[in-house]
Each structure stands twice: as C-alpha cells, then as structure tokens.
TrEMBL record:
Keywords: Carbohydrate metabolism, Fucose metabolism, Glycoprotein, Glycosyltransferase, Membrane, Signal-anchor, Transferase, Transmembrane, Transmembrane helix. Its main location: membrane. The gene is LOC100781962. It is found in: Membrane. Pfam families: O-FucT. This is O-fucosyltransferase family protein. Coiled coil: none annotated. InterPro entries: FucosylTrfase_pln, GDP-Fuc_O-FucTrfase. One of its GO terms (biological process) is fucose metabolic process. GO terms for cellular component: cytoplasm; membrane. GO terms for molecular function: glycosyltransferase activity.
C-alpha cells in the first residue's frame, strides 16, 4: 500500500517509566542515541521495530500495539513497587542531600544524568574513610546493626529530682533597693572578660552581681580575643543582647555603651584578688567610683566569693540560666542539630577533653603511642607556664589521683560498665583530639552511632561560624544541654556550667566520672566483666546528677549547685 512522504518520516514515541530508563546501562542507552535514523530493511535491531519500521506487524495490529504499551507500563510499575531503595531519605533530617558533597556533582546548569556511579577511593587515609563512614550514618544512609532504635535500658533512667524546681523570688529589701539602683545615672561599670566561652560566661555572671553590689549600670561586657583560638566575636555575636537587657531590667541597668557625659572620663581600674566579698568590693572601689563615675575591671575569673547573700546568689542563677541566652542564629542551629539527634530516641552527650593543649596543661599523657607522648612532653618543656596541674607530681600520680582527662579507651570502659547499650546514640563535643580520628576509634568501634556537629550539620549550616571557636562551643553547649544523659571526660568550665543548667532544668542525668576510685579497677585484670560492671555502677550510684545542697561544702558555686538558693521543693516552689 502506497504511503505519502510525510508519513514515511513520522516517528512514534512510547511513554516508558523512569525506573526502566534508569535500569538501562549507559552503554546500551548510548547505542540507542547513536543509531542511524534510517536502516536497511534486513537489519536485526530489536529497537528498529518500535521506532522506524511503520510496516511492522505491531503497527498493523492495534491490539498488539496496546498490549506492548501495557506490558512496558506494567513492568515499570512492578519495578517501582518492589524496589528496596526508596527515593525518600530514611533519615528525616537529610532533606537537601542524600550523599556527601564529595560524591555529588555540583556543576551548575549541568545536563540531567541518567544514572549515578559512586566510586570508592581505596587510597584514602584511614581517618578520611572513617569520617565519610560517620557522615553517611549521620544522614541515615548506612544501615548499622541495631539501628532500629535505641534499646530500652536503665542507662537512660533519670535521677529522682525530689520535686525541686526553680525558685527565684527575691526578698523585699532587694526589691526595694532595685528602684534606687536602676535610677542611678552616675556610675558605669565596664568589664573585660577573658578565656573560652564558658569562662567568659562565669565572668559575665559575676560582672552583673558586682554592678548590683556597687549600684551601677553595667556596660555590655567586652570579650577579650582568646589567645589560643583567636576568636574576635563580640557579646552580641554570641548572646542575645536584647533578651539579656530585658531579663535583668529589674536588677541591673545594662547599657550598650558609655553615655556622652562619661566618654572623656578616665576610669578607675582594678583587678580584684580571688574570692572577694561584697563588703571588700564596696570598701575598695565605691568611694573613687562615686567620684570618677567609671570603673573598669579585668580578670574577673573566680574573683567574687562563691558564698554570697541569698539574693545575690539568686541573681547569679538568674543571669546564668535565664539572661545569658545564645543569639538567635546560634540557638536555632543548635536546636536543629539536637532535634536530629533526638529523632531516633534518647542520646548521650560526651564532652571529650583530648586536645593537645589539655594534655599539656594537665601534665598528663594521651596514652596513644610513645610518639604522641613525646609531642606532649616536648611542648610542656618548651612552655612550662602552660602546666596548671601540680608540678611536683609525676604523670602516674596525677593519673591515679583523678587529675587527668579520660582517654577514649577509658571512656568506653566506663560507659560499658554503666550499662550504656551498644546502639546508644552519642554526640561528642570538644575540640579536635590529639591523634585525630584514630584517637576516637575505641569509642566508635564499641558505639558506632557516634556523631559530632560536623557530621550532623547539612552542607553550609556551619559555614557562617567558621573560625569562630566560641560560637562552635556554644553549639556544642546547646546540644549537650538538651541530651538525655551528659558526661564529661574531665572537669572544666563547660562541664560545670552544664551540670548547673541540667540541675536547674529538673536534674537531668549528669554522670560525674569517679576517676580517683575507679581507675585502680581498670588495671585489675583478675576481675570478670560482670564484677567490673558491678563495681563501676556502685561507684557512680550517687554521681548521676541527683540533687545536692550547695551549702554542705564551702566554696561551691551556686551556678553548679543551685539548691537551696535557686531551687526549692514542690510545696513552696515559686515561678
């Protein structure tokens, strides 16, 4: 039957599900694209019958045509329904990426690819492989044994808070004096705070209390650039300044800068000794302060006594737990990452102190290898001023006295002894450990669900805070404070601050390693695992964050032990 020229060149198209296209190898697909538009009649190509041979039996019989279409569609739907690889990420927070950045083409305006081939680089270093392994797990792309959810365990049980709740009601005398303090426009206190984030927090708390003692307005504290981290962040970069002023509006007037009337005033300068009382501060500074109008204080770390009148202790708690809220971008990012950790159940936050400067300052050794021990000893010899531990003690004496940070092996044994399940989800906070990722291998091998903020953050989330050590520490603080269980490997300002914060929030579980008493059992090879675990649990039965009275021991910080001044029982609690 004769056909027109136009009909001879007409092409026919078939709708094929994308799953079938993706299943075709790139070489097979390329052969389709490269095939000639016209072929001889005796060609053996299977595809020719569908696209060019209009005299084919399929086109002459409509039933065969529709049957062919039906079979293609049915096979495609069958493949889609039975596929084990869902197109939706199994981890609810991996909304923008399914693979690490180094495995995704980011070329702009690139043509859509019909398949993706992921090649493993077998020449990567061990720590790079480990990091990619952790990142994949953080995004929920790798199935780890026991990942169905964190198993129920007594490890997650919370201590009995005995009904204690925040109680920050000030006395009538304090409230009466507030009007006079807030009305004063003559005296302005300026402070320069130093150290890391949590050391600065402690000094800001004391600066507010000192301003109240002197009846002065507080100029927003100046954050001294940290000599170790080089972070130049200002108060408003880290903390919510408007919130800070608003919360303290009835206690101390906070101003952003000196008024024009005091700009040319030469300030009275001072640096108080350790543990001074309110009466010492008044007798030392008040007369000159009234005359000059500006007082500049430096080096406030541990300068104010820990034993203050009840109202000033309450003010300390009000600043530490209510007024010092992190700036909104930091708080929101910390909350998002914490939610990712919470998405599959409870999690443990570890504050690991394994950085080189920590080993140097404590006079301890990391226990990794003779090479790393030599690095620490050499640094200590070159900079003896960094050693803050007792210089007349040997390393072994410090270790057995509980003065050294726990290394990864010891943290692992302690957690296992306390009953932490193998599939426990662990967030680790802290700086880069000496020895890199390999220093963490003992922990990761026994607890494979082991993440840092870098593992959990989506691409670009941490970029605005790059090279901002204080802000990175603030993110760690938020995620650690929100955890179900928290444990530091060594004492320090962050651990103390979080201990008080968790107590004030209802005595959330906080494990204080009993290093001095437990370490001898670590070296006792005659103990069975069952005996060892029983001993470890007994040693820590009173070190799990239970309520403790600050007043049972002199010199305790109320921001670490908020009872009795800042918390009271249910029967007389006041909001």
């Amino acid at each position: 039957m004769a056909k027109s020229k136009n009909n001879a060149n007409k092409l026919s198209y078939i709708s094929v599900p994308s799953q079938i296209i993706n299943s075709i190898s790139s070489s097979s697909l390329q052969s389709l694209l490269d095939s000639p538009k016209k072929s001889s009649r005796n060609t053996n190509s299977r595809f020719f019958i569908f696209f060019t041979n209009t005299n084919s039996i399929i086109f002459r019989k409509p039933r065969m045509w529709f049957l062919t279409l039906f079979l293609f569609g049915f096979l495609g739907m069958l493949k889609f329904g039975l596929t084990l690889h869902t197109p939706f990420p199994p981890y609810p927070c991996a909304t923008t990426t399914l693979l690490p950045r180094n495995m995704i083409s980011t070329t702009p305006h690139s043509k859509p690819s019909l398949g993706a081939v992921v090649r493993e680089n077998n020449d990567q270093k061990k720590d790079e492989v480990l990091l990619a392994h952790v990142e994949l797990r953080a995004q929920g792309l790798e199935k780890v044994e026991g990942d169905e959810g964190v198993e129920k365990s007594e490890f997650w049980e919370q201590p009995d808070g005995l009904g204690y709740k925040p109680c920050l009601s000030f006395s009538r005398d304090y409230r009466g004096a507030s009007e006079r303090v807030l009305r004063d426009r003559r005296k302005y206190l300026m402070v320069v705070v130093s150290g890391g984030l949590n050391q600065q927090r402690n000094q800001i708390v004391d600066a507010v209390v000192i301003a109240r003692i002197l009846g002065a307005a507080l100029v927003v504290p100046i954050l001294q650039v940290n000599v170790i981290w080089g972070d130049e962040s200002e108060f408003g970069d880290i903390f919510d300044l408007k919130h800070f002023k608003r919360v303290l509006a009835n206690d101390v007037r906070v101003v952003s800068a000196l008024p024009s009337t005091h700009l040319m005033t030469k300030p009275v300068e001072g640096s108080p000794p350790l543990h001074v009382t309110p009466s010492w501060i008044r007798s030392r500074y008040l007369r000159r302060f009234n005359r000059e109008g500006v007082l500049l204080l430096r080096s406030l770390d541990s300068r104010l006594s820990k034993d203050l009148p009840s109202d000033l202790q309450k003010l300390r708690c009000k600043v530490a737990f209510n007024a010092l809220r992190f700036a909104q971008p930091i708080q929101e990012l910390g909350d998002r990452i914490a939610e990712r950790m919470q998405s599959k159940g409870p999690y443990l936050a570890l504050h690991l102190r394994m950085e080189k400067d920590v080993w140097v300052r404590t006079g301890c050794l990391p226990g990794l290898s003779p090479e790393f021990d030599e690095i620490v000893n050499s640094e200590r010899v070159q900079r003896p001023e960094l050693l803050t531990a007792r210089s007349n003690m040997t390393y072994h004496e410090r270790k057995m006295a509980g003065l050294c940070p726990l290394n990864a092996v010891e943290v692992t044994r302690l957690l296992k002894g306390l009953g932490a399940p193998k599939n426990a989800r662990i967030y680790w906070a802290g700086g880069q450990p000496l020895g890199g990722k390999e220093a963490l291998l003992p922990l990761i091998q026994d607890f494979p669900h082991f993440y840092s903020k870098e593992d959990l953050a989506l691409p670009g989330e941490l970029q605005p805070f790059a090279n901002k050590a204080s802000i990175m520490a603030a993110i760690d603080y938020i995620i650690s404070e929100k955890s179900d269980v928290f444990m530091p490997s060594h004492g320090g300002n962050m651990g103390h601050a979080i201990q008080g914060h968790r107590a004030f929030a209802g005595h959330k579980k906080y494990i204080t390693p009993n290093k001095r008493h437990m370490l001898p059992f670590f070296h006792n090879s005659s103990l069975s695992e069952e005996e060892f675990n029983k001993i470890i649990k007994e040693l820590h039965q009173d070190s799990l964050g239970q309520p403790e009275l600050r007043t049972i021991k002199a010199g305790r910080d109320v921001t670490k032990f908020p009872i009795p001044e800042c918390m009271c029982n249910d029967s007389n609690a006041q909001s």
